[in-house]
Write a structure and sequence with these properties.
The chain is mainly alpha-helical. Helices cover about 75% and strands about 0% of the residues. Helix 9 packs antiparallel against helix 10 and helix 12 (about 235-255) packs across helix 14.
């Protein structure tokens, strides 16, 4: 990843400025600002429940409103915070709750969506941006950073929409794994077009295989090591600590070794959830681990969606509204061509999926934190950096508000929820 700076700097990167400003210009500390954000998230949670709207999307809207208020509270989402601090929690918790037998049963559609699917969307998005008049450099970089369907966005919504387990597994696992594939593409593209390393097909292919394949094996290995440790100990607090170390350790160690941190963290979480949690923990510890990670994911989701809203500059997007809208259309069209082409492929190989599922998989391809983290990590000498940032922030905003707000009614219209499900 080009986000390579010390991971701990992400903790200080919560704010681009050392202090936040609230009311009448009075400066507050980072700690006070975090409490204010959490309090705002609690108010939004109650409001979203009363309005029967997705909590995560209402958080984005709240962040936008607070940002428009000007001077109420000024905070910004940094690349390191989003990538190194928030993302491991979301990935690990989702992987922890993914049954291995469901993953094995759906390996074909997941594999097609994650590898060839991301590559197809990448090429189509770049071609579409070039057709809009952008240079090939801007087109390729934008395609690489926007192609991932963000697990923070997708999983947060689909966990609350109790759809068919097969569909949920496909959506969840695609979003968990494809951001790692997109991150690899981003690293290769930026290395070739910005830092001047050059794009060599053989070298790029080997690097792609190393980052993805080695990251997968590395995460599985660490997961089994954690399983052995859990079998030796029956102490809830210590075992919770082990899972935390596994989540962040797999992610950061893989990144240090130039593997894919998201892939390693996801693989470690799947092994921890199905092997360590299933065979190496007592029932009490299993419940404690589940509750802990569920709360951690809820807390991170609350902060990340609120910070997305606070970080997006509506004035910049408004000044380039036509370009942002056409870019959003290109991204959605590329995703649709990929998903429905994938559906046709599944028909050919004898594993058809319902068209209603394809509609949800397509429209559920939200963009969010991963895209923002990648664009914020671009070097300052990147060609047309300002344009890339406006495009990315604009498409993320449109994706979250337009697609995110219409997913619940789409799911209900297609009669996919199970009995007793909720849009929250």
């Amino acid at each position: 990843m080009t986000v390579h700076t010390a991971a701990v700097s992400g903790l200080h990167g919560l704010f681009d400025h050392p202090l936040a400003t609230i009311l009448h210009g009075r400066a507050v500390t980072i700690e006070e600002a975090v409490v204010l954000l959490l309090a705002l998230a609690a108010v939004v949670a109650l409001t979203s429940r009363a309005l029967h709207l997705p909590y995560t999307i209402v958080l984005v809207v709240a962040g936008l409103v607070v940002g428009l208020a000007g001077g109420l509270i000024e905070v910004n989402l940094s690349a390191d915070l989003a990538y190194y601090v928030f993302l491991p929690v979301i990935l690990f918790q989702a992987a922890l709750e993914t049954p291995a037998h469901h993953l094995r049963r759906e390996w074909l559609p997941i594999s097609l969506l994650v590898v060839p699917g991301v590559l197809v969307s990448f090429v189509l998005t770049a071609a579409g941006m070039r057709a809009l008049g952008q240079t090939w450099t801007v087109a390729w970089i934008f395609a690489a950073l926007i192609v991932a369907t963000d697990p923070v966005s997708v999983i947060a919504l689909f966990r609350r929409l109790r759809v068919d387990r097969r569909l949920s597994t496909i959506v969840d696992c695609e979003s968990m794994f494809n951001d790692g594939v997109a991150a690899v593409l981003f690293t290769i593209v930026v290395g070739a077009l910005v830092t001047g390393d050059g794009l060599h097909p053989v070298g790029a292919g080997l690097r792609f295989l190393w980052m993805g394949g080695a990251g997968l094996a590395f995460g599985v290995g660490l997961g089994y090591l954690a399983y052995r440790l859990h079998r030796l100990i029956d102490e809830p607090m210590l075992e919770l600590l082990f899972t935390t170390i596994l989540a962040y350790g797999s992610f950061l160690a893989a990144e240090t070794l130039h593997m894919s941190g998201p892939v390693a963290c996801t693989a470690a979480g799947i092994v921890a959830g199905n092997v360590a949690r299933g065979r190496g923990m007592t029932p009490g510890v299993r419940r404690a681990v589940g509750y802990f990670w569920e709360y951690a994911a809820f807390l991170v989701n609350s902060l990340v969606f609120l910070l997305i809203g606070l970080t997006i500059d509506l004035d910049d997007i408004g000044g380039h509204l036509g370009l942002v809208i056409t870019a959003f259309v290109v991204v959605v069209a590329a995703r649709a061509a990929n998903v429905y082409g994938f559906g046709a492929t599944m028909q050919i190989v004898g594993h058809p999926l319902p068209w209603s599922w394809l509609h949800v998989i397509n429209w559920g391809g939200l963009r969010g934190t991963v895209a923002l983290a990648l664009v914020l990590s671009l070097p300052s000498d990147t060609p047309a950096l300002a344009t890339l940032r406006v495009l990315t922030f604009g498409v993320v905003l449109f994706s979250l508000l337009i697609e995110g707000l219409t997913i619940p009614p789409l799911v209900h219209a297609l009669r996919l929820p199970e009995a007793g499900s909720s849009v929250l």
